[in-house]
Amino acid sequence: MKLHEYQGKEILRQFGVNVQDGKVARTPDEVRAIAREYGQPVVVKAQVHVGGRGKAGGVKFSPTEDKAFENGEKILGMDIKGLTVNKVLVTKAVDIDAGVEYYVGMIVDRNVQSYTLMASAEGGMEIEEVAAATPEKIIKHRVDPVTGLRPYEAREVAIKAGFKGNLNKIADMMVKMSEAALKRDAVLVEINPLFVGPDGIPLALDTKFEIDDNAMYRHADLADWRELEAEHPLEIEASKYGFAYVKLDDGNVGVLGNGAGIVMTSLDVVNRAGAKPANFLDIGGGAKAEIVYNAVKLVSKDTDVKAIFINIFGGITRADEVAKGVIQALNDGILTKPVRMRIAGTAEDEAKALLAEVGSPLIQMYPTMFEAADEAAKDANAAEGK
Amino acid sequence: MGILVDNNSRVIVQGMTGREGASHSRAMKEFGTQVVAGVTPGKGGTDFEGWPVYNSVAEAKAAHDANVSIIFVPPAGAADAVLEAAHAGMPLIVLITEGVPTVDMMKAVQEVKTLDALNRAEGGQGIRLIGGNCPGLVTNGQAKVGIMPNKIYTNPGRIGLISRSGTLTYEAAKLLNDAGMGTSTTVGIGGDPVIGTTFADVLPLFEADPDTDAIVVIGEIGGADEEAAAEYIAQHMKKPVVAFISGRSAPKGKRMGHAGAIIMGDVGTPESKLAAFAAANVPVADTMPEIIDMVKAALNK
């Protein structure tokens, strides 16, 4: 689960990180009230789950109360990469030129089978940009998942990265970030910029925080932070069925299969066939007719989808169960788009017999995934006049 | 022969009396695996479909001289089940469970590695964890410690298979089977970000196995295990290796079903994996059936 900046900051505060003061506003009037309370220049920052807020005009320096109100009006309701801004964070502005901006972050790193701590004196930029332009400026260090980051390690990394200021305090902030990551099951945490003022004291100005979905069961206190309105409606519906579903942009072929690997490959096959996958949908193993029915129902609701490609490898899954689910969707009037499927495994003949009985051109079975994907691609492209 | 599991594997099932544990215990027995006992805390001393059930791994291991444990324990207790098996000195631990918190896996994997090193230093054969979120492993014609469908393993052969994905493992095993080549051992290493055994850990075992002539590596987007494998192959492997990478059309920043299948920034891209395999002279199949042609070509050289 991705957290908003203000939520990430709240967690860091819980672990004792020195975080820049700020409050959340939902209306321009609230923005003005917060600016008045602070009695100093503020920054109004859009709270949306996408990167590049600043470039999109979602972060505005506001020297006065009136300007803060005006910027609140501009940013609230604004659309950033398809997401509407419903909340802004109003923070006290900092004179960046009076100090320096650093980067510190931790990420799950399968190469070291733990977290890797990253630190760079090039703060304020996306770390990917630093990695691309000047990778030598990023210092990396494996964090022991049992002990967490120790202060001496943090100091070593800070020194190597060329950090100036109160080294003990900076290292302490890194240690607290590591505690937050381990206790709150972070997949990713960044403090960027980590601002060090003329007094040498570190201050977290912005953060990214993402929590491991598999660990959400032990963070029941954060469950309210999940924002259904920020997710795609089809993704919300899919989660009700327990499907792994990802909506993909610019697609025209709905894709579903049993298993993450086979669905990933199905996306590739649709691409090779000259069409674009509209979604990733893993229905899991041992899929019964009802599950297939729900999956077809879900994918059919997507107006981008012009044809559906079903790719099942039946170890446990029976082909006739899959066919029954699809036929049921047809009979209920849910299925109006062509379904091209490949089902390898048990009870293929029974599935064929069932489909022959129905005799609908909308549902066809093919011996290989390539033929099924080719047909689905042709159907989808033809429906779009391509 | 084959690697890791064979006729001599004596398998206990942690979580045998649960739904998944029960059905796969039956399927493994059907395959011919020596399943010797189950472990379900609180049900020790009972019998489950003819298998004795124990409260702990240590008891089951001692009573049956077991050398492999397969785990079907739900996510919240899975890492603990791994540690119990590792501390009982189980040489091979296979974690099937999907959805284990990553921090739990980081801690468990680190501890298993420490125990492994200690065990080896004392002259033991070591302790190895496979998975989690994996389909397990099969040595064709001998033993299955996993959840693969039995019927795709009818023709034992001489191709080793390593994969991050369950279903693509089945797909590849079936293609090899149908092409008359068959597999020696199949190892599903798992789709999670932090796993016990990587491609580069399994490759040397296949290199040393007299019953394996070539190896198929099925990777996917996310992480850099494929890059590490390519480096190992370039430096150490004499046997031919053929690769496949799944998710080549997946967008950045979206998790594709597997917790580990995500391109984060510049890490985990298909381009990086393709380049690494190209640099190691490992052919990469564009489609699954091409794997067969490439394996044939590699063996005929």
Automatic annotation (TrEMBL), chain A:
<keyword id="KW-0479">Metal-binding</keyword>
<dbReference type="GO" id="GO:0004776">
    <property type="term" value="F:succinate-CoA ligase (GDP-forming) activity"/>
</dbReference>
<dbReference type="InterPro" id="IPR013650">
    <property type="entry name" value="ATP-grasp_succ-CoA_synth-type"/>
</dbReference>
<comment type="function">
    <text>Succinyl-CoA synthetase functions in the citric acid cycle (TCA), coupling the hydrolysis of succinyl-CoA to the synthesis of either ATP or GTP and thus represents the only step of substrate-level phosphorylation in the TCA. The beta subunit provides nucleotide specificity of the enzyme and binds the substrate succinate, while the binding sites for coenzyme A and phosphate are found in the alpha subunit.</text>
</comment>
<dbReference type="Pfam" id="PF00549">
    <property type="entry name" value="Ligase_CoA"/>
</dbReference>
<protein>
    <recommendedName>
        <fullName>Succinate--CoA ligase [ADP-forming] subunit beta</fullName>
        <ecNumber>6.2.1.5</ecNumber>
    </recommendedName>
</protein>
<dbReference type="InterPro" id="IPR013815">
    <property type="entry name" value="ATP_grasp_subdomain_1"/>
</dbReference>
<dbReference type="GO" id="GO:0004775">
    <property type="term" value="F:succinate-CoA ligase (ADP-forming) activity"/>
</dbReference>
<dbReference type="GO" id="GO:0000287">
    <property type="term" value="F:magnesium ion binding"/>
</dbReference>
<keyword id="KW-0436">Ligase</keyword>
<dbReference type="Pfam" id="PF08442">
    <property type="entry name" value="ATP-grasp_2"/>
</dbReference>
<dbReference type="InterPro" id="IPR017866">
    <property type="entry name" value="Succ-CoA_synthase_bsu_CS"/>
</dbReference>
<feature type="binding site">
    <location>
        <position position="101"/>
    </location>
    <ligand>
        <name>ATP</name>
    </ligand>
</feature>
<dbReference type="GO" id="GO:0006099">
    <property type="term" value="P:tricarboxylic acid cycle"/>
</dbReference>
<dbReference type="InterPro" id="IPR005811">
    <property type="entry name" value="SUCC_ACL_C"/>
</dbReference>
<feature type="binding site">
    <location>
        <position position="206"/>
    </location>
    <ligand>
        <name>Mg(2+)</name>
    </ligand>
</feature>
<feature type="binding site">
    <location>
        <position position="45"/>
    </location>
    <ligand>
        <name>ATP</name>
    </ligand>
</feature>
<feature type="domain" description="ATP-grasp">
    <location>
        <begin position="9"/>
        <end position="220"/>
    </location>
</feature>
<feature type="binding site">
    <location>
        <begin position="52"/>
        <end position="54"/>
    </location>
    <ligand>
        <name>ATP</name>
    </ligand>
</feature>
<comment type="similarity">
    <text>Belongs to the succinate/malate CoA ligase beta subunit family.</text>
</comment>
<dbReference type="GO" id="GO:0006104">
    <property type="term" value="P:succinyl-CoA metabolic process"/>
</dbReference>
<feature type="binding site">
    <location>
        <begin position="315"/>
        <end position="317"/>
    </location>
    <ligand>
        <name>substrate</name>
    </ligand>
</feature>
From TrEMBL, chain B:
<feature type="binding site">
    <location>
        <position position="170"/>
    </location>
    <ligand>
        <name>substrate</name>
    </ligand>
</feature>
<dbReference type="InterPro" id="IPR005810">
    <property type="entry name" value="CoA_lig_alpha"/>
</dbReference>
<dbReference type="GO" id="GO:0006099">
    <property type="term" value="P:tricarboxylic acid cycle"/>
</dbReference>
<comment type="pathway">
    <text>Carbohydrate metabolism; tricarboxylic acid cycle; succinate from succinyl-CoA (ligase route): step 1/1.</text>
</comment>
<keyword id="KW-0547">Nucleotide-binding</keyword>
<dbReference type="GO" id="GO:0004775">
    <property type="term" value="F:succinate-CoA ligase (ADP-forming) activity"/>
</dbReference>
<feature type="binding site">
    <location>
        <begin position="96"/>
        <end position="98"/>
    </location>
    <ligand>
        <name>CoA</name>
    </ligand>
</feature>
<comment type="function">
    <text>Succinyl-CoA synthetase functions in the citric acid cycle (TCA), coupling the hydrolysis of succinyl-CoA to the synthesis of either ATP or GTP and thus represents the only step of substrate-level phosphorylation in the TCA. The alpha subunit of the enzyme binds the substrates coenzyme A and phosphate, while succinate binding and nucleotide specificity is provided by the beta subunit.</text>
</comment>
<dbReference type="GO" id="GO:0009361">
    <property type="term" value="C:succinate-CoA ligase complex (ADP-forming)"/>
</dbReference>
<dbReference type="InterPro" id="IPR017440">
    <property type="entry name" value="Cit_synth/succinyl-CoA_lig_AS"/>
</dbReference>
<dbReference type="GO" id="GO:0000166">
    <property type="term" value="F:nucleotide binding"/>
</dbReference>
<feature type="binding site">
    <location>
        <begin position="17"/>
        <end position="20"/>
    </location>
    <ligand>
        <name>CoA</name>
    </ligand>
</feature>
<dbReference type="GO" id="GO:0004776">
    <property type="term" value="F:succinate-CoA ligase (GDP-forming) activity"/>
</dbReference>
<dbReference type="Pfam" id="PF00549">
    <property type="entry name" value="Ligase_CoA"/>
</dbReference>
<dbReference type="InterPro" id="IPR003781">
    <property type="entry name" value="CoA-bd"/>
</dbReference>
<comment type="subunit">
    <text>Heterotetramer of two alpha and two beta subunits.</text>
</comment>
<keyword id="KW-0436">Ligase</keyword>
<keyword id="KW-0816">Tricarboxylic acid cycle</keyword>
<dbReference type="Pfam" id="PF02629">
    <property type="entry name" value="CoA_binding"/>
</dbReference>
<feature type="domain" description="CoA-binding">
    <location>
        <begin position="4"/>
        <end position="100"/>
    </location>
</feature>
<protein>
    <recommendedName>
        <fullName>Succinate--CoA ligase [ADP-forming] subunit alpha</fullName>
        <ecNumber>6.2.1.5</ecNumber>
    </recommendedName>
</protein>
<dbReference type="InterPro" id="IPR005811">
    <property type="entry name" value="SUCC_ACL_C"/>
</dbReference>
